[in-house]
Amino acid sequence: DAKTTQPTSMDCAEGRAANLPCNHSTISGNEYVYWYRQIHSQGPQYIIHGLKNNETNEMASLIITEDRKSSTLILPHATLRDTAVYYCIVRVGSTSGSRLTFGEGTQLTVNP
Amino acid sequence: NAGVTQTPKFQVLKTGQSMTLQCAQDMNHEYMSWYRQDPGMGLRLIHYSVGAGITDQGEVPNGYNVSRSTTEDFPLRLLSAAPSQTSVYFCASSRTSLQETQYFGPGTRLLVL
């Protein structure tokens, strides 16, 4: 799986958009970009994933650059409950096993 | 649906003791896995299973055994606990192993003295 690079920490004001970047310059054509988050002491929670098109769901939007070497997770109106560690994961699924390789992620702190 | 459940929530062991961490899911998911998370670090894959009767090793399998006799259950066994196994253990499941989102349990916090 391709390696990802994320900032260690970010801050965001409550109610503003949080934009979390991720670099994955070695991504290959069949690898998806996944985002998970982990609120303190809880199990990771799936947010969104995409291959090459931008994606949006009820939680967030995912913007993937045209060359697919980087992406941005957007939380449109951050709340205090969005404070968490956010993991960007690049993964290709296979019948032999789908494994998520977690890096250290970005600690997002939403401030009142 | 209860989702993915894990028991116990917290356990203290002495070095050399053995125990089993339980994981169950009620979503009829084929794929299940175990991760450990050490302080300040990301999750590392221990073992995984793509279906009942099939298991395989992940990134850090030493000191752990698994079995998958049913679709619902995927227990993790510590054969002889060591202080290095002090960690938080998460179980996860997904419908299949192909580009599927994974659902995580609440975790088991293990302290080995």
Salient structural properties:
heterodimer, A: 112 residues, mainly beta, 5-stranded mixed β-sheet, 4-stranded antiparallel β-sheet, 9 strands, globular, B: 113 residues
Number of discrete helical segments of chain A: 0
Oligomeric description of these chains: heterodimer
Residues in helices of chain B, as a percent range: under 10%
Topology, number of strands of chain B: 11
Specify the structural class of chain B: mainly beta
- Cα shape of chain B: globular
Number of helices of chain B: 0
Strand line-up of the largest beta sheet of chain A: 1-9-8-3-4
The proportion of residues in beta strands of chain A is: 35-45%
Question: Can you characterise this structure?
Answer:
The complex is a heterodimer of chains A (112) and B (113). Chain A is mostly beta strands and 112 residues long. Chain A has no helices and nine strands. Chain A has a five-stranded mixed β-sheet, with no helix packed on it. A four-stranded antiparallel β-sheet of chain A has the order 2-7-6-5, with no helix packed on it. In chain A, β6 (61-64) and β7 form a beta hairpin. Chain A is globular. The N and C termini of chain A lie far apart (37 Å). Chain B is mostly beta strands and 113 residues long. Chain B is 0% helix and 50% strand. Chain B contains no helices and eleven strands. Chain B has strands spanning 4-7, 10-13, 19-25, 31-37, 43-51, 54-57, 64-66, 76-78, 87-94, 103-104, 108-112. In chain B, strands 2, 4, 5, 6, 9, 10 and 11 form a seven-stranded mixed β-sheet that branches. Chain B is globular. In chain B, 36% of the residues are buried. Classes of the chains: A mainly beta (112), B mainly beta (113). The A-B interface holds A 32, 34, 41-46, 49, 87, 91, 93-105 and B 4, 31, 33, 35, 40-45, 48, 50, 56, 58-59, 88, 90, 92, 94, 96-107.
In short:
The complex is a heterodimer of chains A (112) and B (113). Chain A has strands spanning 9-13, 18-23, 32-38, 45-50, 55-56, 61-64, 70-75, 84-91, 106-111.
